[in-house]
Specification:
By secondary structure, the protein is mostly beta strands. The protein has no helices and 3 strands.
Length: 71
């Protein structure tokens, strides 16, 4: 399983021509260090994605493990 989150669209121009960045010369320092940077071939931008965590605000205390409610 890969730890890389795969984007479907460029967050800047919306194009789908994305490639993983391999930290080539000219890439901002640290952008490709962990191998999580992406390059958009359409607008010539490099960007990274990061997972921050799960939100607990969508969970209700009365929901069981399968999401069913018991009265």
């Amino acid at each position: 399983m890969s730890e890389r989150a795969a984007p479907y669209y460029c967050p800047y121009c919306g194009d789908e021509d994305l490639r993983p960045s391999e930290g080539r010369p000219g890439t901002p320092r640290g952008a490709g260090a962990a191998g999580h940077a992406w390059e958009c071939r359409s607008c010539n931008r490099a960007f990274t994605l990061s997972f921050l965590g799960l939100l607990a605000s969508g969970l209700r205390p009365d929901d069981g493990p399968e999401g069913d409610q018991t009265s």
